[in-house]
Amino acid sequence: MSMRIFYQIHRWVSLVCALFFLMLAVTGLPMLFRDQLRAWNTVNLPPASAPMPQAEIWNSLPEGFAAIEAYFPNKEVLAVTPNAADGTLHFSVQTRGVKSTARTHMRMGGEQIMYDVRTGNVFNRKDRIYRFTAVESMLHWAHLLHTQLGSAGMAGKHFLALMCILAVLSILSGLFLYGPMMKGIALGTLRRGSTRMRWSDWHKFVSVFALVFAVVLCVSGVMIAAYSAGVKHYHRDAHMAAMTALSDLPAAETALSPAEAYRTVHEAFPDKIIISMQVPQGTNKNYAFHAADPPTKPTNFVLDEMVFLPKSGDAAPLFVPAPAWMHITPLFLNLHIHNHDWIALKIAWAALLLLTIAMIVSGCVLLATRRFNTIHRGTARPVHRTNASVWRAPAAIAVLSMAGLLAPIEGGIGNAVGLAALGLPLIYFARLLRR
Q1: For residue 339, which of 407, 249, 242, 430 has the smallest C-alpha distance?
Q2: What are the Cα distances from residue 264, in Å, to 66, 304, 307?
Q3: Distance of CA 72 to CAs 87, 90, 121, 203, Å?
Q4: Of 51, 98, 367, 425, which is most buried, counting CB atoms within 10 Å of its CB?
């Protein structure tokens, strides 16, 4: 395939996806610091406690239900999820008598009440007071635009996944153009011959540093969209399977309490952690638990699989496995979301996002100035050339970038390794910029 064909692919695919790729990069910046921004912006949020083992948090389930009943007697509990990061139970609730149920999953969506198992304090997250409502609105819309194109829902997720696929195609086609277009020029050289030459040099320069980061985020974004669609179907099918398998069981004399139901499932699956519990509602007479293998580090995403237990009856817990393909999704979700716990890693990610934005903007300027190529006269800027392979520096940067994204998933020393691996290319970029 000739260089001209790669150029046409790069040009037209970039033209289609550039605006949406830019939107994803821009909205990703505030989402990096969402937890820090919300903690600062919320004036009445209770102080966070220290981390706590999940099993100890679950032991406080009876006290948590009693606190909800005492402080919020008009609320009924839909689900319970522990947060090991601060020793709290999150109760998903709704007003008694309401027929429609707000969409909620784990600690997201709907009305959530936090119960601190150490102090016994309760806090309804709907009662949060913000310093600046505009900051919360910005974070809310950044999340919606980044994940589902505003209010487009699942259709928006699928569309953004398609844009991510096109972005990867755009980047990879540009990779084929890099070698022939460098012509022995050293990385970081910014020539002054014409407007397009200058923007072309900028585009190649920042793309070398943003390439792997952008590709990993796009590929993982596609897998997140696939997981989002897949888990919705899996949960629906699992509930139907449980209703079929457990519908004809004889009733027991007494109904299981939430604490007894948790204990039964925990004893049946001692090697798994229980990350959420749905309480039977209406015609649904089964507890639904989300169980998973313990994560490498507490903040990592893990694939939850469903376990059902009748509220009344002597049946053993029913485990419904997730589809085999879904077991690869935690890697991609952790690459995209859970590998920058340190604030220093967030800052490194922010720098790489800015380079990604610069890559997109410089590419758009190149497309826009095809017919307006101003020649710059005057003192020429020296052109730095190299006898080394033009691929040597990009290859090293690519390896370091990949290591910087993978290592923090392991936690501990992996965070330091990841920070060093991402930091070295950024330092090299700053050094070349000053040249």
Answers
A1: 407
A2: 21, 18, 11
A3: 21, 14, 13, 57
A4: 425
Main-chain phi, psi angles of 108, to 5 degrees: -120, 140
3-state secondary structure 47-101: CCCCCCCHHHHHCCHHHHHHHHHHHCCCEEEEEEEEECCCCEEEEEEEECCCCCC
Indicate if the pLDDT at residue 102 is higher than 70. no
Q: What is the pLDDT of residues 104-114, one digit of tens each?
A: 677 777 899 99
Q: Tokens 């949020």 sit at which residue? A: 45
Lowest mean pLDDT among 115-119, 138-142, 235-239, 254-258: 254-258
Distance linking the first and last C-alpha atoms of the chain:
36
Whole-angstrom Cα distance, residue 359 to residue 209?
9
* 244 exposure class (CB count in 10 Å sphere: 0-12, 13-18, 19+): exposed
Give the Cα separation of 31 and 37 in Å (integer).
9
Closest residue by Cα to residue 256 from 306, 310, 307, 316? 310
Model pLDDT for residues 411-423, shown as the tens digit of each residue:
999 999 999 999 9
3-state secondary structure of 108: strand
Residues forming a β-bridge with 233: none
Rounded to the nearest 10°, the torsion over CA 193, 195, 201, 204 is: -150
Phi-psi region of 114 (alpha: psi -120 to 50; beta: other; left: phi over 0): beta
pTM: 0.89
- Could you identify the residue written with the tokens 């204990």? 263
